[in-house]
């Protein structure tokens, strides 16, 4: 009994309400009816009997609602319940004709599928001779009683099924909420990495330049420090936008920032663009890629020359970022920045390629659909057709 109460608490309020809604009328109303028609002792005996039958019913219902395995001892429990139910029905009269339905529900909840439904069919058919044995004057209404019994069994099972589905949906909603929070955290972490990588690199370069100039040209050194402070202020505002989910990048601004950063690190930079207008989503993705690639060039290579090409051709936007500072080992290390860019590009049905380009060159290549919306519609149509 203690385990049953624990399981009911685990099942939650909907399961408790459903079980109470079945149990109270089941155990209380027949006892009250018998109290009006017979002795208090008979009513007490019936109430105790029905309450005892309620225990396996509630145990099976809770296990079903909570998705647990069937409890052991199912056949024995169903047989004992059937004996008690039919003895009570024959002993106490016609107002217990509904009671065999409890045996049918127990069979479905406690026994394997085919056996359970065979018991349901047997209980339904047995209702006809039971009605005739209790009151021969019922006649043709015995068939109606059997049909009503079957309907009541299906209704009870339907209520329990509904409660289980409702509980499962609550669990799924909770999991989806947690997943949404985790995805947002991953987005913030990824965008902060991409955003602050270039900003911190620029601040470092400006600060190092100011330190180098502090003895030779204090005025210029102070100007470089003021520029570093301005970059830090911009970064603070950008971080707020990232956290609020409102941060989008402009391709033109990111190209200008990348050129400034690369030239500040000592590399010459050539930019070739053949793109008049770009989709907002594509522009945002290209902006992040330009930012991350420029930061990686400054951090991980000794580049002296860089080329950035951006063009649109045949419905595709292509980006090339090349530099002559091949990193140690010659092949890229896929850190969180590159992995984040690869996921961003893949979500837009694009490709990201990073690696050597010639004997002394290193390149980042990106190929994206010019209109990701049309690309997704086409992909959906092809999958539907397949």
TrEMBL record:
GO CC terms of this entry: membrane
Record's keyword annotation contains Transcription regulation: no
GO molecular function: phosphorelay sensor kinase activity; protein dimerization activity
Bilayer-crossing regions: 15-36, 43-65, 85-108, 115-134, 140-163
Coiled-coil stretches: none
Keywords assigned by UniProt, alphabetized: Kinase, Membrane, Transferase, Transmembrane, Transmembrane helix, Two-component regulatory system
Domain Signal transduction histidine kinase subgroup 3 dimerisation and phosphoacceptor residues, every copy: 185-247
Tagged with keyword Transferase: yes
Listed InterPro entries: HATPase_C_sf, Sensor_HK_TwoCompSys, Sig_transdc_His_kin_sub3_dim/P
SUPFAM superfamilies for this protein: ATPase domain of HSP90 chaperone/DNA topoisomerase II/histidine kinase (SSF55874)
Protein name: Two-component system, NarL family, sensor histidine kinase DesK
Species of origin: Nonomuraea maritima
